[in-house]
Write a structure and sequence with these properties.
four-stranded parallel β-sheet; 11% strand; Arc Repressor Mutant, subunit A; 6 domains; 643 residues; alpha/beta; globular
């Protein structure tokens, strides 16, 4: 069986790869494939017709998304093979990619050959040619027409760069786990599975420990070199890089093996280029001379970088040993990569920007300290790598902050207190820190201070903090009561919900520009003394960094740094979406005014807003709301449902 067109295969692959999360929303698919949600629904209907033979059905759960039903493991493998098979292009953009790829592997191509091969008319080709010329011009390649023939003019180095950066999709689900259909087409003249086997054996033999994505990067660069050499194209120049002697010897043996296996000859430029890309993905192989003075500098830079985050964002990450080790190692490798003029691309960049916008901003704001001390220039890709390390540390700190301090007040003796304490610790070790066990007299003497609440076996009515009373006879039921109380403390629902007030919710009917809208929202916060006078300036400074649009027609404008007296969110729903930046239109605006003291405790706010991107219920109920109170009720319901 073969599916009708390529997008059906892509959607089926998304559904098969998303088994852990189960659901894939139409909004997510529409954004990913640059089509409308109506088109996605039509695609799903067509897929269901074509999958009926296998007794498989794609179902839609309201508020969640599409999922595959009636699927066992064997059938999953069979359908994945169908999804990844070579299917006809389903859009003009896919045909353009196929034509570009064809131009890269052929010296001269007649117009009639192109139109016949891709089933298009002359006029359609000329329409595509505008985009194709633009794509090639961006990297320094030119399409030349000679009589009725077309050919590509440019260096082999630039052509290979185009293939790696423009034609290969590193964000594809199959990028790491196997070879995408596009990769199989590009490298159709070599056995990719055999190459993968050779590279993996090489890495294992010499105990070179690389991440999956770095390993795949190396395999692709080797595949590109072999494929181009077999087609008769060779590099004219390459990077010169000194690596460790033992690694150099090992790679030389790998080259001999590759030449024999694929019947090619790698010249010096080809070998040097592959060594360079190996070093980019495995910086540990670069000679020690290149990293001479960096270790001490990096440790110092990391400390200053984290201290600045603490100063500007009230996030104390300085004493997180895991973060310090990971950042130091990452920067150590990065310094070596930059020393050899290397650049790395993060295939998760767009995901990080839309999923962890505030964490990314913290890094972008504090990055100049690292750049200055280590003589680096950190681009968006490198900032996103660092965001992952710091984001994990923020999550760890958030988990720690949910652990509450309590003291146990017991008047029945040491043995009873020990029994109850052991019982509580075994039940609530992840949520409870028992700071001490005290008698009632010790409590009256003020020894049970600095706690979030008290657990007592003695009646206490005058405590300045909450009290949970338990009884040894009824301990199991009292533990249930304590559990409910801890849930209420650790549930961020109430704190997030209080950020939204009806007086800061706006249903905007008139046409407004982005600037007019932001000015209106900010001035209203200023009039209520919620933000400082420099809040507007800092919001616009933040807008200059990169877009605050996160997808799903949602934007989260906020200040660069803190300029807020108390934490509030100003929300606007527009009747008609407005242009937010060069790529995004926005209809739902969350203007965040977050105070320094509240930042860590309301981390879940950002998770909540990011999740709204793919939540069709959000758009449906917000669009139906006719006043601020209905919007407030809808947001409260969505927050409560999330937590």
């Amino acid at each position: 069986m073969k599916l009708s067109y390529k997008r059906l295969g892509n959607i089926l692959e998304d559904l098969l790869n998303n088994s852990a999360n189960c659901y894939v929303s139409s909004a997510f698919l529409a954004k990913k494939y640059n089509v409308s949600t109506r088109t996605i629904r039509s695609d799903i209907q067509e897929l269901n017709k074509e999958l009926d033979y296998y007794k498989v059905k794609i179902k839609n759960k309201r508020g969640s998304g599409f999922y595959l039903a009636y699927l066992d493991q064997n059938l999953r493998k069979q359908l994945m093979k169908i999804a990844q098979s070579n299917l006809p292009a389903s859009s003009s953009s896919e045909r353009i990619i196929e034509i570009e790829q064809y131009l890269l592997v052929n010296n001269q191509i007649k117009l009639s050959e192109l139109t016949d091969r891709f089933f298009i008319s002359d006029n359609t080709f000329f329409t595509y040619l505008v985009t194709i010329k633009k794509d090639f011009n961006e990297v320094g390649l030119k399409i030349i027409k000679s009589k009725d023939y077309y050919y590509l003019k440019g260096t082999e180095t630039v052509k290979r760069k185009f293939i790696i950066t423009k034609l290969i999709n590193k964000s594809s689900n199959a990028y790491i786990v196997g070879f995408t259909e596009q990769e199989k087409i590009i490298f159709a003249n070599i056995r990719l599975d055999r190459l993968k086997q050779i590279v993996h054996s090489f890495l294992q033999q010499y105990n070179y420990s690389l991440s999956d994505i770095n390993t795949k990067n190396i395999i692709l660069h080797i595949a590109l070199a072999i494929s181009r050499v077999k087609l008769g194209y060779s590099l004219e120049k390459s990077h010169q890089l000194k690596i460790k002697g033992n690694v150099s010897a090992a790679i030389s043996k790998l080259f001999i093996n590759l030449e024999k296996e694929f019947c090619i000859k790698l010249n010096e430029c080809e070998r040097n280029d592959l060594i360079y890309h190996f070093a980019i993905n495995y910086p540990e192989c670069v000679t020690d001379k290149i990293r001479a003075k960096t270790n001490k500098d990096i440790n110092k830079a990391v400390r200053i970088f984290l201290k600045n985050i603490k100063k500007e964002f009230a996030l104390d990450l300085v004493n997180d040993p895991e973060l310090c080790i990971n950042l130091t190692q990452h920067l150590n490798n990065l310094v070596k990569i930059k020393k050899v003029n290397g650049n790395r691309k993060n295939p998760l960049l767009s995901v990080i920007l839309s999923t962890f916008p505030y964490a990314y901003e913290i890094i972008a704001y504090s990055a100049p300290y690292l750049e200055h001390m280590l003589n680096l220039k950190l681009d968006d890709d490198e900032l996103s790598f660092i965001t992952l390390h710091v984001g994990a540390a923020i999550e760890r700190q958030g988990m720690k902050s949910t652990k509450k301090n309590t003291a146990l007040i017991c008047g029945n003796g040491i043995s009873t207190a020990a029994l109850v304490r052991a019982k509580l610790q075994s039940q609530f070790t992840a949520f409870l820190n028992i700071t001490g066990t005290y008698t009632y007299e010790e409590y009256l003497a003020g020894k049970a201070t600095d706690n979030d609440f008290l657990i007592t076996m003695v009646p206490i009515t005058d405590a300045p903090i909450p009290v949970i009373q338990i009884d040894l006879v009824n301990l199991n039921n009292d533990i249930i009561q304590l559990s409910e109380y801890l849930k209420s403390l650790n549930n961020p629902y109430q704190k997030i919900d209080k950020l939204f007030d009806t007086e800061n919710i706006y249903l905007v009917k008139q046409n407004m520009t982005k600037k007019q809208l932001l000015n209106m929202l900010i001035k209203n916060l200023e009039s209520k003394a919620i933000v400082n006078k420099d809040f507007m300036q800092k919001v616009y400074e933040r807008e200059q960094m990169y877009s605050t649009a996160i997808g799903g027609k949602i934007a989260i404008p906020h200040s660069l740094g803190y300029a807020t007296k108390k934490s509030k969110v100003s929300f606007a729903r527009l009747s008609k979406a407005i242009k937010w930046d060069e790529k995004n239109e926005v209809k739902y605006i969350f203007l965040l005014a977050i105070s320094r003291d509240d930042y860590l405790s309301i981390q879940k706010l950002f998770d909540f807003i990011v999740d709204l991107q793919t939540n069709p219920t959000f758009r449906k109920i917000i669009d139906k709301s006719s006043n601020a109170q209905e919007v407030k009720n809808a947001i409260s319901m969505l927050i409560k449902k999330s937590y």
